[in-house]
Amino acid sequence: MNGNDLGRVLVTGGGGFLGTALVARLRAEGCEVRSLSRRFYPRVDELGAEQIQGDVADPAAVDRAVAGCTTIFHTAAKAGVWGRESDYLKANVEGTSNILASALAAGARRLIYTSSPSVVFDGHDLEGVDERARYCQNFEAAYPKTKAMAEQMILAANGPSLATVSLRPHLVWGPGDNNLFPRVVARARKGRLVRIGGRDPLIDPIYIDNAVDGHMLAAKHLEPRSSLAGRVYFVSQGETIHLWDMINSFLRIAGLPPVSRVLPRPAAFAAAGVLEFLYTIARRDEEPPLTRFLVRQLSNSHWFSSAAALRDFGYQPSVTIAQGMERLAEAQAIPSSISITG
């Protein structure tokens, strides 16, 4: 199957980082593309995609966006490690429910959902785990909790008329990133970056082109009753890097010094608990400097096997971390001789 065989394609969150990259790839392959986002994005317009402004939590907007579409990439979500659970439920669970209802009513054929490996993160090391990993039983943040709820809805909706699949790309990054890279840089500039304990855990952050490859390959292999219909897949980078090497590489690209402060893990947990309590009782919307979920993310390894994605739809990463770092440096207009070792 080629891009044209996907029919008219809807990308929810088409103005986001992954969404825009998907729109660009789809348009390059000659697809007719529609984007559903809460605001207008000039870049999406430049790519020649139709834009509908609306919220996935609004059934009427979703109905307008889904109408006439054969393939749906559902990337829209509320991300982050802090905020009211009701907001996450509205965006991630109610929004997904609306997408599914409209897709079934409109006769869409395939739905590719962008999930997250955090749905199985239980606060301990996850090293090379695959799709047999169980959902976390005690979520410490609303984002992974609601993504797990939405993912289960997606899988349950798979059937003879609508084929669904859930992909779990990990820490998507690269040029155009509006979350991971700027978030790390902003925290560093505010003096909020600190190493947790003495460990330097391993992670496998996926470069944007590889994430798009995984989504496109899954879509092209997805049909009702196909081998991947109703299943979940980790879509990983295929190589690991030490977390603080990755962060310090980001900082070098931004012209900032490496992280030097170290906070013992027990002290970090204690501080995070106090900060969460204070921010909650004060009803502050902004994220605390530390949360318990973030402490666990920064002090545990989390990397995943995408062997099933290779087996079932031929996914293999094409851009290495080193190559991706060079491209990110070039996009930031910084000399690109960037080392990724600490």
Give the number of helices.
12
Q: Find the CATH superfamily of the domain at 3-172 and 206-238 and 303-318.
A: NAD(P)-binding Rossmann-like Domain
Tally the beta strands.
Answer: 13
Content-based structural category: alpha/beta
Overall pLDDT metric = 93
Shape: globular
Unreliable spans are: 334-342
Compute the CA-based radius of gyration: 20 Å
Please report the first level of CATH classification, the CATH class of the domain at 3-172 and 206-238 and 303-318.
Alpha Beta
Beta strand %: 5-15%
CATH architecture of the domain at 3-172 and 206-238 and 303-318: 3-Layer(aba) Sandwich
What does this structure look like?
- There is one protein chain.
- Helix 1 packs across helix 7 (208-221), helix 3 crosses helix 4 and helix 4 packs parallel to helix 5 (142-156).
- This protein has a domain at 3-172 and 206-238 and 303-318: Rossmann fold, CATH 3.40.50.720.
- Strands 3-2-1-4-5-7-10 form a seven-stranded parallel β-sheet, sandwiched between helices. A two-stranded parallel ribbon has the order 6-13. A two-stranded parallel sheet has the order 8-12.
- By secondary structure, the chain is α/β, with parallel strands linked by helices.
- The chain has helices at 17-28, 42-46, 59-66, 85-106, 142-156, 180-189, 208-221, 243-253, 265-281, 292-299, 307-313, 321-331, and strands spanning 9-12, 33-37, 50-53, 71-74, 110-114, 126-129, 163-169, 195-196, 202-203, 231-235, 241-242, 262-263, 302-304.
Which structural traits does this protein have?
seven-stranded parallel sheet, 342 residues, two-stranded parallel ribbon, Rossmann fold, 14% strand, globular, disordered C terminus, 12 helices, single chain, alpha/beta
